[in-house]
Write a structure and sequence with these properties.
single chain; about 425 residues
Length: about 425
C-alpha cells in the first residue's frame, strides 16, 4: 500500500496543487504584515485596528471550519479549489481600492473566504490518496506555506517599492488566480467515485443514518440542535475528550503564530530598520519553517505519542524564541531569532494534522468534521492575536508586552499537549 500510494501520478498532482494552495494560504497572510505601515498611513487608522482586520482575514478562513467540512463532503475538491482562486484574487483586487477600515475589512473577508473554502477538501483528498503516508503528504504540502512565507513578503515589498501599494495588491490578486489552475487538476481516486457523497441529498442521508432512533423521533428543534452541535464537533469531542485539550493547545499556539506573522515586520521597522530589511525577517522566518518541515520528512506516521512530543518540543522552542525578541536590538540577532521562531512556530501545522488523524481513525465524515474543528481553533486564535498585540502597542507604544504574552500562551500550549486519549493504542 505504501508503494502504490507513492507511485500514483494523480496523487503527486494532488500534492502539487495542495502545495500551491498552502503557498498562498500562509504566504498571503504573512505578506499582509508588509502592508501594515501602508494601510496605517493611507487609511489613517491605528495599528490595533489594522491588526484586527488582518487577524480577521487570517481567522475567518479557519473559523468557517464546520462549513468547510460540509462542503468537502458535498462538493468536489476541484470545484472548491477553483472557486478559491477566484475569490482570493478578487479579495486582493478589492482591497487595493479600499478607502476606509470598513471597506478594507470587507475586502480582507473576501480574501479570507477564498483561502478558507477548500481547506478541508484538500486535506480530505490528500488522505484519500495517501492514507498510509499521510504524515509525508502533510510535511510536503505544508512546506508550501514555508516557501510562501519566504517569497511573498519580499515580493510584496518589491511590488510596493516599484509600483505602489495599490498596484502591489492588484498584482498579488493576479498571481492568486493561478489557484484556479491548480484546482482544475484535482481528481478523486477511482475507488472513491462511487462511495463519495456527491449531492446534498446524499450527504443528508448519510447524516441521517448516523442519527439514533430517538433522535429520528424527536422534534424539529432537537434535530436542528443536533445538526448544529455536530457541525461544531461537540459529538466528536464527546466521543474523544482528548480533542478538547488538543484544540485548546492549537488555539493558544496559533495566537502566538498569528501575532508573530502580523507584527514581525512592523516590530522590526519600529526598531529603526529599513522596510526592506524588515520584510527580510519574514523571509528568514519562512526559511526556518521550511527547514522544520523538511526535517518532518524524517518522521513518517509513527504513533500519537511521538507526534505529541514533537508538538510539545516545538511549542517550548517557540515560546523561548518569542520571549527573547524584546531583549535584542542587533539586526543579526533579530534575524537569528526570526529563523528559529519560524522553525518552532511554523513546523507544528503538519504535526497537529497528524495528531488529529491518529485520534480520529475514520477517514470519512468524522475526519472531515474533526479537521474542520481544528481549523476553527486556528481561526479563534488568529482572530484574537491582532487585537491583543495591536491594542497593547497602541496603549504602550511598544510590542514587548504583546510578545511576552504570546510566549506565555505558547508555553501553555505545550502543557496541554501532555493529554492522552483514555484508550491510548496509538
Amino acid at each position: 500500500m505504501e508503494h502504490s500510494e507513492l507511485k500514483s501520478v494523480r496523487g503527486w498532482i494532488v500534492i502539487a496543487s495542495s502545495f500551491l494552495f498552502t503557498f498562498f494560504q500562509l504566504g498571503s497572510f504573512k505578506a499582509l504584515g508588509v502592508f501594515v505601515p501602508k494601510f496605517q498611513e493611507q487609511l489613517s487608522i491605528g495599528v490595533g485596528a489594522i491588526g484586527s482586520i488582518i487577524s480577521f482575514c487570517g481567522a475567518f478562513r479557519f473559523i468557517i471550519g464546520p462549513v468547510q467540512s460540509r462542503l468537502a463532503n458535498v462538493v468536489s475538491a476541484r470545484v472548491l479549489a477553483m472557486v478559491s482562486g477566484i475569490l482570493t484574487g478578487l479579495g486582493y483586487i478589492c482591497s487595493a481600492f479600499s478607502t476606509s477600515g470598513i471597506t478594507l475589512a470587507l475586502s480582507m473577508g473576501l480574501l479570507s473566504l477564498g483561502l478558507g473554502v477548500p481547506m478541508v477538501a484538500y486535506i480530505k483528498i490528500g488522505r484519500q490518496y495517501f492514507n498510509v503516508n499521510f504524515a509525508l503528504y502533510s510535511a510536503i504540502v505544508f512546506t508550501g506555506a514555508a516557501v510562501g512565507m519566504m517569497i511573498l513578503p519580499p515580493l510584496s515589498e518589491f511590488f510596493i517599492q516599484t509600483y505602489g501599494t495599490q498596484m502591489a495588491l492588484i498584482l498579488l490578486g493576479a498571481l492568486s488566480f493561478n489557484l484556479c489552475v491548480g484546482g482544475a487538476l484535482l481528481k478523486p481516486p477511482d475507488e472513491t467515485l462511487t462511495s463519495r457523497p456527491t449531492s446534498r441529498k446524499n450527504y443528508e442521508q448519510l447524516d441521517s443514518d448516523r442519527n439514533d432512533t430517538s433522535l429520528a423521533k424527536s422534534g424539529r428543534i432537537e434535530a436542528i440542535l443536533h445538526t448544529i452541535l455536530s457541525w461544531f464537533g461537540v459529538y466528536a469531542m464527546r466521543k474523544r475528550p482528548v480533542l478538547f485539550a488538543y484544540y485548546l493547545a492549537f488555539l493558544l499556539w496559533n495566537i502566538s503564530l498569528a501575532g508573530w506573522i502580523i507584527f514581525l515586520v512592523p516590530y522590526t521597522i519600529g526598531l529603526g530598520f529599513p522596510a526592506q530589511q524588515a520584510s527580510f525577517m519574514s523571509t528568514l522566518g519562512g526559511v526556518g519553517t521550511l527547514v522544520g518541515r523538511i526535517i518532518m520528512f524524517a518522521f513518517p506516521d509513527q504513533t500519537l505519542n511521538s507526534h505529541r512530543l514533537q508538538f510539545m518540543m516545538l511549542s517550548i522552542g517557540g515560546a523561548a524564541s518569542i520571549f527573547l525578541y524584546p531583549f535584542v536590538n542587533a539586526y543579526w540577532l533579530f534575524a537569528t531569532l526570526s529563523f528559529f521562531a519560524g522553525l518552532f512556530l511554523g513546523t507544528p501545522v503538519p504535526v497537529a494534522m497528524v495528531m488529529i488523524k491518529f485520534v480520529v481513525a475514520d477517514e470519512g465524515e468524522d475526519f472531515a468534521e474533526a479537521t474542520g474543528l481544528l481549523h476553527t481553533s486556528y481561526g479563534i486564535g488568529t482572530l484574537v492575536a491582532g487585537p491583543i498585540v495591536g491594542s497593547i502597542y497602541d496603549i504602550t507604544g511598544s510590542y514587548h508586552i504583546g510578545f511576552f504574552i504570546m510566549a506565555v500562551l505558547e508555553a501553555l500550549a505545550a502543557i496541554l499537549a501532555i493529554a492522552k486519549p483514555k484508550a491510548d493504542t496509538c
